[in-house]
Design goal:
Length: 84
């Protein structure tokens, strides 16, 4: 049985915990989130420490004002090549 390596969807899940995360092992983020997280960069003291949330300059969710111009969104995940 063969499964397609490319998956299409017209909307993201309503639960943001299920949105895809992208990263390279050093820096990562959740798609459309307002923060980026970097390996080795923490905030806090000792056991109260947690990963530092860096404001995400790449987060852009464009919405259209004119309903006539509204386009269709689609999301694609290629699990064979690991691309979104």
């Amino acid at each position: 049985m063969t499964h397609s390596a490319v998956h299409f969807c017209c909307r993201l899940p309503e639960d943001v915990r299920l949105w895809p995360s992208i990263g390279n092992g050093h820096i990562g983020m959740v798609v459309y989130s307002e923060y980026v997280f970097m390996n080795g960069l923490y905030n806090g003291f000792w056991i109260q420490s947690h990963r530092a949330a860096i404001p995400n300059p790449l987060s852009a969710n464009i919405s259209r004002i004119n309903a006539r111009e509204a386009g269709n969104h689609s999301y694609v995940l290629n699990t064979k090549e690991g691309t979104v």
